[in-house]
Amino acid sequence: MARTAACVWRISPELVRALDDQLGMPVDSYVNGTQTWLTEPGDPDGPDVTLEWRLHPVASFRLPSELSHYDLWEHVVEQLVKGSSSDALVLGTEHRTLHSLWDGMECFVPYGDEVEPAPLAQLATSVLGIAPDAVGLVDHTRIGSEWERTDGTVSLVELLLAELHA
Question: How large is the average pLDDT for residues 120-143?
């Protein structure tokens, strides 16, 4: 069982604003609601290793009507910047809450590079400006298999947190 160091944050408007301020637009957006960023070595004020940041969707994620997965991030950030409540976001033709979209975010070192949990937490906190809610080692294979087995009806963030608190 390969375990990877990971940091996890629960979703909040502050987390979304920090992601937007520090990382900008996601490098990739997925139909399942996942938003992904990479910080590479050599980025200004960046870490010495590549960090992958994944904003994980809620269980049984459903995209708001009239939005594509590519537009979702921008529309959420726009609403929060305008001062909209995270409990009343206007997304396409729907009113949704931030918690109806994403459960939280995970940061880890991709590509098989190994970093211990404590240094990863320090790196991630220095990049994002917000300390994670949980840090430790996770089995991405087991968590991914469970998510796929349930056809996305379980929360990846809750699976991660359960493993980190086990």
Answer: 95
